Each structure stands twice: as C-alpha cells, then as structure tokens.
C-alpha cells in the first residue's frame, strides 16, 4: 500500500504479570482498507484493540495517528482525535430508542460541559451526528424503535452506528459478526465495505469466510506474536498459518 498509514503500531507489547499477551506487534491501518487481525482464542487480539483505543496502557512500543504519537493519550482524547471502537459485548441501552443510543454516543464523544442544562434532544450537533451515523449504518428506518427490541444483527449494526456517531476516522471493530445469521452477516459486510472508503478499519473476527471476503490485509497472531501478515491470497497459502491456525480446509 503506497498511501501513508493513518494509524501505525510499532512493536507494541502488553504484559500481564509474567504473561506477554501482545508481543512486539507492528502493523499499519490505511484509509480505504480493512485490516483483519485473526488468531486463536487468547492470541491477544482484544488486548491489542484495548491498547489502540486507550482502554489499557501499552507496556512497550508506539502507536501513532497521522504521524503523532498517541501511545500515552487518554482514551477520550484518542476518541476526539478520531479513533472509534465497537465492543464484543453489546453496550447499547436497551430501554432507549435507536436514535437516543446514537445521540448519547455522539454526546459522550463531544461533551459540552458548559451546556449541562440543555435538553439533549435539542443538541443540534449530537442529533445531526446521530442521524448521519444511523443513515450510514442503514438503521434510519428503525430510529424510533426501542433498541432492546431489535434483532441481534440490528443491535450489532447499532453498535457500529454508535461508533460512527463519534465521527471516527479509524474504526476498531471487535467481532462485529459474532452470533449473526447468514443474512445479518451479509448486511454487516455490506456496511463495512461501504465504510472502508472513508475509514481505516481494524477488524478482529472469528468468521474466517467473512474475513477472507472483506479484508484487504490480514495479520495472524499466535500467543501474542504476529506470525504472518499480508493479503488474503498470501495468508491462505502460508504454510505456517495453515499449521498454526487455519487447518486444512482453507
Ligand atoms: N486483564 C487481564 N489480566 C490478565 N490476563 C489477561 C487480561 N486480559 C487478557 N489477558 C490474557 O491475555 C491473553 C490474550 O487475551 P485476549 O483477550 O487479548 O485474546 P483474544 O485473542 O482477544 O482472545 P478471544 O479470541 O478469545 O477474544 C490471554 O491469555 C488472556 O487470558
């Protein structure tokens, strides 16, 4: 890829006591690319995402956004700078509407402490950001629905919409396809394909068929370490990857 990386990860390491959960991982995220990180359970994928979003500190290494070192930046400041994430577990408020959930996400990302008296429904910025995000995620038609009544697939779409409401340039997506049926998976893959033109996407995902369809680049982790990184075709035939992870059916 010739364009400059939007987000760069350089020899990033995280230790939990004696365990090296992420070991000197180096990778780049580019605008217009889906970069999938795959690996067996416990390989360190979520720990990597948690370090990129700022939820946990790195033990060593460097993260840069647009060439600026953000390794020690607090989570909310990274979010403001354009690093958005979705979670493995659903984080929506089930009793609120779809639009309200998105609006809260937008407000959390752009807090206006001096306007605490303002009714949230009147906040033009967060309303506009929420509507835009719902539109991008294909959820405008269910904006008024109570979020808890959505199907599992639509809830995961709402998670992505809530992330979009924070106006990120980098999307860190932790298993967005988990628990989805075939139709829901197709819808989410269509959404990711449309989002990648204007975002750099890091996708952690166990659905290998989906990963090989949507990813432009795949990084394979085993026990915290990257064992291979490349385009899907090269990863598919990589003997080390086949032995360590994919098995003979890929
Ligand atoms: N807070 C923590 N304290 C101690 N060990 C942890 C902590 N978080 C993760 N680990 C350990 O770090 C290793 C990597 O875990 P991580 O959740 O990042 O893997 P993963 O690749 O995301 O797995 P999965 O695919 O199951 O989600 C595991 O051995 C895990 O037990």
UniProtKB/TrEMBL annotation:
Protein name, entry field: Branched-chain amino acid transport system ATP-binding protein
GO MF annotation, one: ATP binding
Domain ABC transporter residue range list: 7-248
Domain of life: Bacteria
Keywords of the record: ATP-binding, Cell membrane, Membrane, Nucleotide-binding, Transport
Coiled coil spans: none
Protein species of origin: Variovorax soli
Cross-referenced SMART domains: AAA
Record Pfam families: ABC_tran, BCA_ABC_TP_C
